Amino acid sequence: MSNPQGSPSLPQERRLVTEIPGPKSKELLARKQSAVPPGIGTTLPVFVTRAGGGVLVDADGNSLIDFGSGIAVTNVGNAAPRVVERVQKQVADFTHTCFMVTPYESYVAVCEQLNRLTPGDHEKRTFLVNTGAEAVENAVKVARHATGRQAVVVFDHGYHGRTLLTMTLTAKNMPYKHRFGPFAPEVYRVPLAYPFRWPGGRENCAAEAAAQAIDAINKQIGAENVAAVVIEPISGEGGFIEPAKGFLPRIAEFCRENGIVFVADEVQTGFARTGDLFACEDEGVVPDIICTAKGIAGGLPLAAVTGRADLLDKVHVGGLGGTYGGNPLACEAALAVLESIEEDRLVERARHIGDIMLPRLHDMAERYDIIGDVRGRGAMIAIELVRPGTTEPDPAATAEVAKRCHAEGLLALTAGTYGNVLRFLPPLVIPDHLLEEGLNILDKAIGSL
Ligand SMILES: *Cc1c(COP(=O)(O)O)cnc(C)c1O
């Protein structure tokens, strides 16, 4: 079965012709190990030669089901035809001028689109950078500049990147922070409404967590010292934690009351992934600044900071930017992505994926008491594995399930502060039969423990 939105000539099938990884991938892995430091990890050591729709094809000719999308990047599919076409044309016209030196239209067009499509109908501005971390760093720069304040508030289980500031904003020590200190100053962490693990129970989670977070800000920092609150509307690396309903709006309201810039880090949740164009829309939260990256350009490196015009316009000429920010190839790719989301109805498609996955996973949770929680929205879905009958995390079982999935040709990713979350991020163009087949593999992998 071919997929109209995927790479059309790439058969949409799981096909294993060697063990995983096969001999060619093993040879390449040996080269990687002598050329690349181990700090750059590998989830599944198959070396990819082609990808599209819902599959990754490796050097040995295996075709694997992709439940990762390169970590929520290829939402529109890998080598998506619209992206390929626009990038091919652009690469022949010009590859770089530096937008800050001599500009070009596609950069402006991407900014116009993001100003139009992000939550809220207030006047907005956008500028482009290269990575999610860079977007978050820049949001903090803008918030500090505009408010004249320094403190930045982040949450338990948060992930915001690997640069000095963003690893400081990130919650988890291993592997992100361990021995990389000292960290950036004026960063404060407060509780997140994590329903599955809230001591007071799911029903009290939103109100209690918001009260604790706000109390910590007032008592430990002073709201008048806070430049920005930075939050993922659904935690990504932290384990796809959907904050209990009511938590995000309450935090946003507190920010509004206190002149604090509310920054939504939608680097992982953006671009139709969660069944809304942006995850904040689910509860009608309108951020002052929204950071986007990952899904924005179908795999080309691009990120954006979009926010209230009155905040972004405050920064002096030359205070923002970077050599490659808004590279013309990446901008063309982003325009193709936005076109695909609209024309291929990928928001609906993400909801459809959730409608297939969630009932299957809830059914597995009935049968396997190792599954403690099933959660997520759209095509951003996760299960949390625990010791049966408890909430005690089981990272060993989680790693084993992922390993068994990989051996059967299903790329599944793990996540979570406790390393006990299996997260599923299929490309939004994955055909239904591959989604079902992937879930069958997962079911068997858990059942075989
Ligand atoms: C991936 C991610 C980042 C960092 O993006 P990079 O492009 O890897 O720098 C920041 N925030 C969130 C929520 C992410 O998922």
From TrEMBL:
Molecular function as annotated in GO: (S)-3-amino-2-methylpropionate transaminase activity; 4-aminobutyrate:2-oxoglutarate transaminase activity; 5-aminovalerate transaminase activity; identical protein binding; pyridoxal phosphate binding
CDD domains for the chain: OAT_like
Q: Where is this region: Disordered?
A: 1-24
Pfam family example for this protein?
Aminotran_3
Magnesium among keywords: no
Positions with biased composition (Polar residues) = 1-10
Biological process (GO) annotations?
gamma-aminobutyric acid metabolic process
Q: What reaction gets catalysed by this protein?
A: 4-aminobutanoate + 2-oxoglutarate = succinate semialdehyde + L-glutamate; (S)-3-amino-2-methylpropanoate + 2-oxoglutarate = 2-methyl-3-oxopropanoate + L-glutamate
Protein name stated in the entry: 4-aminobutyrate aminotransferase
Q: What is its EC number?
A: 2.6.1.19, 2.6.1.22
Instruction: Could you list this entry's UniProt keywords, alphabetically sorted.
Output: Aminotransferase, Pyridoxal phosphate, Transferase
Q: Which organism is it from?
A: Sinosporangium album
Q: In which pathway does it act?
A: Amino-acid degradation; 4-aminobutanoate degradation
Cofactor(s) recorded for this entry are: pyridoxal 5'-phosphate
